[in-house]
Amino acid sequence: ILHSGATRKLNEISTAYEIFLTYNQTKGFAVPRRSVIALIFSGAFISRVDSYDAAYAQQSVGLREYIDTFDGYSFKYPQNWIQVRGANADIFFRDPFVLDENLSVELSSPSSSKYKSVEDLGPPQEAGKKVLRQYLTEFMSTRLGVRRESSILSTSSRISDDGRVYYQVEVNIKSYANNNELAVMPQDRVARLEWDRRYLSVLGVENNQLYELRLQVPENVFIEEEFDLRQVMDSFRVNKLVA
């Protein structure tokens, strides 16, 4: 039940949002709805924001926990995402509307891997290079005129509350393709951007296995959903299997 101050504030927010939409339509530009809400709460349309509203503004879209007791890992994911079965991963979730935004977990074979720590991969920078090479291998194309641009944005390590070391790797990959790959003259083969994505990986080791949480998201969507996606990354845990 909302107290009277909260109710009044929500009414002010609703009014401000309607005013913004009217102005938005008049000026002929578009701003994502989440960005509009952020502007409203930040004080762009409401001069006085109390502590209740500030806390409300920072809330996530909502995360749900997934626990795999058989393979030994857990993570949180946006509650509106759906699980896709049959994907080439141990588990796979995706946004039902933005199909290029998804999450998966992959793990090495327990019979062929003998990892003791994620540091067996080397320092985070070396792990980042391996992660990027793996992505580029998976995205190899036999189409004529396809070109990929890639870069490692960041690599880091952290000790989580379970005492384990995790590596985090962020890379960007852009794909370009010629609009007419069979054209004879170079000027007739114009490269266009097909997609621009950010890939976020969290690596952990337990049970002699390497676990990797993978997040894929279009760059323009990442800007808007970074807070939630980083919460997902921070939630990833690997767990000791009990024989």
From TrEMBL:
One of its GO terms (biological process) is photosynthesis. InterPro entries: Mog1/PsbP_a/b/a-sand, PsbP_C. Coiled coil: none annotated. GO terms for cellular component: extrinsic component of membrane; photosystem II oxygen evolving complex. Residues 62-238 form the PsbP C-terminal domain. GO terms for molecular function: calcium ion binding. This is PsbP C-terminal domain-containing protein. It comes from Escallonia herrerae. The lineage of its organism: Eukaryota, Viridiplantae, Streptophyta, Embryophyta, Tracheophyta.
